Amino acid sequence: MWEPVIGLEIHIQLQTATKLFCSCRNSYGDPPNTNVCPVCLGHPGTLPVLNEEAVRQAVKLALALNCTVNKTSYFARKNYFYPDLPKGYQITQHRFPLARDGYIQLRSGKKIRIERLHIEEDSGKSIHTEEETLVDFNRCGVPLAEIVTRPDISSPQEAVEFLKTLRLAAIYAGVSDADMEKGNLRCDANLSLRPRGSKSLGVKTEVKNLNSFRFLAKALEYEIKRQEEILNSGGRIKQETRGFDSQKGITFPMRSKEEAHDYRYFPEPDLPPLILTDDQISSIKSRIGELPWEREERYINELGLDPETARILCSEVEISILFEKTLENFPHPREVANWVKTDVLKLFHGGHRVSPRTLEKILVLVRDGKISRLKAKEVLEEAVMDGKDPEKIVEEKGLLQISDEAQLRSIIEGVLGEFPDKVESYRKGKRGLLGFFVGQVMKKTGGKANPKLVNKILGEVLNGEQ
Ligand SMILES: [Zn+2]
Fold first, then answer.
1. pLDDT tens, 144-172?
2. Cα separation, 53 vs 7, whole angstroms
3. Are 85 and 124 in contact (CB under 8 A)?
4. Closest by alpha carbon to 352, among 322, 395, 326?
5. Distance 73 CA to ligand 1 centre (A)
6. Which of 119, 187, 191, 301 has minimal CB crowding within 10 Å?
7. What is the distance in A from the centroid of ligand 1 to the CA of 24?
8. All domains of the chain in start order, with CATH
9. Could you count the other beta carbons within 10 Å of the beta carbon of residue 358?
10. 137 C-alpha to ligand 1 centroid (Å)
11. Separation of CA 63 and ligand 1 centre (Å)
C-alpha cells in the first residue's frame, strides 16, 4: 500500500591534475598533508583561482547527463565548522548552479530527472583511531560535481541502476574514475513513503554516505521497512539525517531537522561569476565521445549482438575496448563476444588483463580445429597468468586436437570393440548410447578428439557397417 519516493545526491570527484582553486596536486593515496598550500588550508589573505579544466569536465558530465548548461553560474560559501574544513566554509554553487534539468533513462524507458549539477570543493578527511582523530588535508579543495535528482526513483533497484549508469557515463566521458572504494563517487539517498497512487509527498529521511551499490540497496530496503512499520502502526516519520551501519545492515539517526545546520549561504566574494559562451559549450560537447548507452546501441544495431551481451560488454570500458580491438583482426562479433563476456570477464574481475593479441590467437586455434573450446579455456588462463604465448602452450602441453580421420576411426573401432553388448543394443535401437561412446572416445584421447569428427565417424561405423 506504500509507495517509496526516492531521490539521490551524488558527489563525483573530477579527474584533474590540480585542485579546484589552487595548484596543489589532485592525487589519491599520497602521504597525508603533502598536497597542501595556504589556499587550500584556508590561510587568511589567500585567494582562490578557478581551475578551468575542472569546469570543462563538469560541463562535459552535465552534457552527458542531458543537462542544460547555464551560461552564467555563481559560487557561494556554505558555512559550517568541521575539523577537516580549515576555511570554516566550503565553496560551492547554491542558487545558480552550473547546469540543470538533465536526466538518465533507465532500461525500462523511465527517465529519472536530474534537477541540477554544480561544482564544489571537497573537504579533507578525518581519520578516527581508537585514541585520537587525525586530519589529512590532501583532499581539501579537490573538485567535485554534485548531482541532485528529482524524487523520481521508486525502488532500490531503480536507484542502483541509476547510480551504475551515472558512474559509467562519468567513466566513458573521461571525467572521473568514479571509484567508489576510493570515495571518488559517493551517494546520499532521501526516501519517503506515500499511499500508492497518491501525488503528495510524505516526510523524508536522508541516509548519508552510501559508498557501494550494495549498501545503497540495503539502506533503502531497510528504510522502506522501517518507515512502513511506523506508518502502519499510526506513527509519524521524523525528518532527519541518518547514517548506515553496513555491518548490521541498518540505518540510525544522526541529526534531526531541529539540529540541522544553518549553512548561511552567501555569494563567494572572491570569485567572479562563471561565464561560458555557446562556442565553449559546443566545443566541449563535441569532445564527449561515445557514451555507454550509445555503445550498447551500436553493438546491437551494427554488430548484431543481443541486448544482454551488449550490456555486459559495455559495463566495463576496458572490456569493450578489448572486444573492439580483437574484432579488428578477428571480425566475428558474436564469437568474440562469447569469449569476452564469459572467460575474459571472469579473468578481468580476478584482476587479470587479456590482450587482444592473446584472445585472437585463441580464437584462431579454436576456429582451425586445433584445440577444443574446453582446452582453449585452459590455454587462455595460462597465457594470461604466465604471460606465455597460446601456441607455445598448446605445443608444450600436447593439447593439439586430434582431427585426423584415420587416427580417430581406429580409436573409435578400438572403443566399440570393448563394448560389443552396447554396440548390439545401440543397433537394436538404443540410440541414447551414442553419448556413451563419444564419452569413451574422449576419455581415451584425454579430451583431445575433435568432437564433430567423433560424432560423424561414430555415426558411420555404428549405422553403416553391420
Ligand atoms: Zn592547495
1. 999 999 999 999 999 999 999 999 999 99
2. 29
3. yes
4. 322
5. 23
6. 301
7. 4
8. 2-283 (no CATH), 292-397 (no CATH), 405-464 (1.10.10.410)
9. 21
10. 9
11. 29
DSSP secondary structure letters along 303-332: T---HHHHHHHHTSHHHHHHHHHHHHHS--
CA–centroid distance, 35 to ligand 1, in Å, is: 7
Cell match 568514479: residue? 178
Query: What's the gap in Å between 266 CA and the centre of ligand 1?
Result: 23
Cell numbers standing for residue 321: 575496448
pLDDT at residue 465, rounded to an integer: 55
Helix (H, G, I), strand (E, B), or coil: what is residue 171? helix
Query: From ligand 1's centre to the CA of 140, what distance in Å?
Result: 8
- pLDDT, tens digit, 9 for 90 and up, residues 165-219: 999 999 999 999 999 999 999 999 999 999 998 989 999 999 999 999 999 999 9
pTM of the model: 0.86
Distance from Cα 42 to the centre of ligand 1, integer Å: 9
23 C-alpha to center of ligand 1: Å?
6
| From 22-36, 235-249, 398-412, the region with the lowest mean pLDDT | 398-412
